[in-house]
Amino acid sequence: MGALNGFDFKRKKYMPVFPRATGKPTVYIEGYPSEDDEPMAATGFHGVQIRIFSDQLARYFSTESPVYIGIDSFIYYYEGDRTKFVAPDIYVVLGAEKFPERRSFYTWTEGAVPTVVFEFLSDSTAAHDRGAKLRQYLLDIGVAEYFIHQPEGDKPPEFHGWHRNPAGEIEGIPPDAEGGLFSHSLNLWLRWEDYPGKVRLLRPYLPDGTPITTSTEEAQLRLEAEARAQQAEARAQQAAARAQQEKQRRQQVESELEQLRAQLAALPDEGS
After folding, report:
1. Is 2-213 a CATH 3.40.50.720 domain?
2. Which residues of the chain have pLDDT under 70?
């Protein structure tokens, strides 16, 4: 379990510091719809991306109580106006309690707005995700960072991020040489890689480049760690068995020597 224990140490080291929300978790407010007729995932590519990425974030922040991760649920951001809502693919609210689970997120009762929002592009939403949602998320709602990503592998790569600069203006997050973007709010690198099924998978990494594993990868790591532990135990048992055999051989040799000494002592003295 060395790799897993090492990751837990790094997680504590790199976990961002943030204030708690000033309000209370709110499951539902009457009069504010919590669903529509739109499917949760526009395509299978989106389904894979949303499932894996949200699981990675949820497990990474599992040790931090006040972190809420929403998946395609409504965010109402103006009290009294139920037309003022958005439904991002994934959003993270640092400072808001994980539980209870909400039907929708109401910024005025929670005393918090989403810290980071992720949208995964589809044919029907791409133009809106690139355009109007920029101002809506970053200026109208007050989200700290906004990222868009194209998960469909047959389409050209598209991964961009924005935040508000100290002057309050929208500013692009500059990519590194490999196209990765750093989220200062989450203190994580974000990079994409090719995934089976022609999915272009966006993944989070620690600041030192350590990947945050998927559930499948973590399960494999645990199996490998258990196998190594079993192998080490087997080697220890074999070493103990060899030591026992060596001890028995020494005891046998000592016994034979004692018998020889006794036989020599019993022989008649040549001078008698």
Report:
1. no
2. 1-4, 37-41, 219-232, 234, 270-272
Whole-prediction pTM: 0.80
Three-state secondary structure of the chain: CHHHHHHHHHHHHHCCCCCCCCCCCCCCCCCCCCCCCCCCCCCHHHHHHHHHHHHHHHHHCCCCCCEEEEECCCEECCCCCCCCEECCCEEEEECCCCCCCCCCEEHHHHCCCCCEEEEECCCCCHHHHHCHHHHHHHHHHCCCEEEEECCECCCCCCEEEEEECCCCCEEECCCCCCCCEEECCCCEEEEEEEECCCEEEEEEECCCCCECCCHHHHHHHHHHHHHHHHHHHHHHHHHHHHHHHHHHHHHHHHHHHHHHHHHHHHCCCCCC
Exposure string of 76-91, with b = 16+ CB inside 10 Å and e = fewer, is bbeeeeeeebbbbbbb
